[in-house]
Amino acid sequence: DACLVSRKKLHLIGVTALFVAAKYEETWAPPLSDLRICCNYAFSEDDITRMEREILNRINFNLCIPAPIHFLRRYSKAGHSDGLTHTIAKFLIEMT
C-alpha cells in the first residue's frame, strides 16, 4: 500500500526504527533522551514509545527469521563448547 507520509512523521518513524534496532542488536540500548537529542527534541519520549508499539504491532513482533547461527550460539553456550568447536561448527553452517 502506498500512502503519503509527512516529513515529520517519517522522521519519527526513522528515529523509532533506530531505537527498535538498537534494542534488538545492542547489549545496552540508548536511552530515549539520547534519541531525543539526535532529533533536536522534535518528539517526546511518549511519541517514540507510541510509534515503537505501532511499528512492532504492524510487523506482528516478527523481528527476524530463525537462522542456524542463532541455534548454534544457544547450543554452544548450553554445551559449554570451546572456541575452536564453535568456530568449526560456524564454518560448517556457512558452507551449507
Low-confidence stretches: none
Helix content: 55-70%
Number of strands: 0
Cα shape: elongated
User: Structural class, from secondary structure content?
Assistant: mainly alpha
Biggest β-sheet: count, sense, barrel? none
N/C terminus separation: 36 Å
Mean pLDDT: 92
What is the CA-based Rg, rounded? 19 Å
Taken in chain order, the helices and strands follow as: HHHHH
β-strand percent reads under 5%
Please, how many helices? 5
Question: Which key features would you list for this structure?
Answer:
mainly alpha; 67% helix; 0% strand; 96 residues
Structure description:
- The protein has 96 residues and is mainly α.
- The protein has helices spanning 7-25, 32-38, 45-58, 68-78, 83-95.
- Helix 1 packs across helix 3 (45-58) and helix 4 (68-78) packs antiparallel against helix 5.
- The protein is elongated, with a radius of gyration of 19 Å.
- 6% of the residues are buried.
- The mean pLDDT is 92.
Secondary-structure map with pairings?
Elements: H1 7-25, H2 32-38, H3 45-58, H4 68-78, H5 83-95
Structure described in brief:
The protein has helices at 7-25, 32-38, 45-58, 68-78, 83-95. The chain has 96 residues and is mostly helical.
